[in-house]
Design a protein that fits this description.
Length: 203
Amino acid sequence: MLNIVWIAMIIIGFIAGIANGTVAEVTSAAFEAAGEAVTFCIGLMGIICLWCGLVKISEQAGLMEVFAKIFRPVIKKLFPEISSDDMAVSAIVMNLAADMLGLGNAATPLGINACKEIKRAENRLLGPGSKYKPTKNICLFLILNTVSVQLIPSTVIAMRAAAGSADPSKILFPVWGVSFVTCIVGIVMAKICEKLPWYKLNY
């Protein structure tokens, strides 16, 4: 869908340029922007590599395990149906910890593994269900995965640094506040929806 939006914007831009007689300016701006994008990406790569390296060091130093121990009781409260399955709980905690540390794409395999472990735990504890039907536990996990608290928003900090920001990490407090609020709202809404009749019928 996003590709369609971008293509539509490009086509509309060229049509507007033709209609206004500014095709040359539109073409020049397109090539100039493309060059700036390449330069920006190259500058961003070094900063992202630095952050990923720092996060990897933190992971190997045991910081991920510390997060896992801290949040394990909370996860067991949020997922009471699978709280007796340590493998599923551990998978959820590891993914959320990776998101909090700003691992980005590196956290994706952990998220996929967590979904598999949740499904396995549900099949063992609640009985086998539809293979492709999302359950309330998986829906809640995806919400947490999307709105998790960002302790180190490394990608945004890297983008601000690459764009020449004088203080790239100045966004830390706003990001902490917004991500905390969105996480709470997401959990509350998920728990409210679980009580609705139509939600129970579909999930």
